[in-house]
Amino acid sequence: MLQLIHILGLSFLACIIMGAILAYLGIHVLKREVIFIDIAVAQVAAVGS
After folding, report:
1. Report field, pTM of the whole predicted structure over 0.70
2. In the chain, where the domains are located
């Protein structure tokens, strides 16, 4: 059982992190009232550059 927790621990952590990132992006899309997600992703990418 301990080996299973050790193996799946990083996967579980990655799922939690991706859930938080995608929730943030979803809120960002809804706030800006952007219907097309590709436009929203391009805007977020532009902010990071």
Report:
1. no
2. 22-49
The C-alpha atoms of residue 15 and residue 12 are separated, in whole angstroms, by 5
Distance between CA 37 and CA 42 in Å, rounded? 9
Q: What is the pLDDT of residues 6-47, one digit of tens each?
A: 889 899 999 999 999 999 988 887 887 767 777 777 888 888
Q: Residues 40, 29: contact at Cβ < 8 Å?
A: yes
Rg (CA), the chain: 16
Pull the structure tokens for residue 8: 């799946």
Contact 25, 44 (CB under 8 A): yes
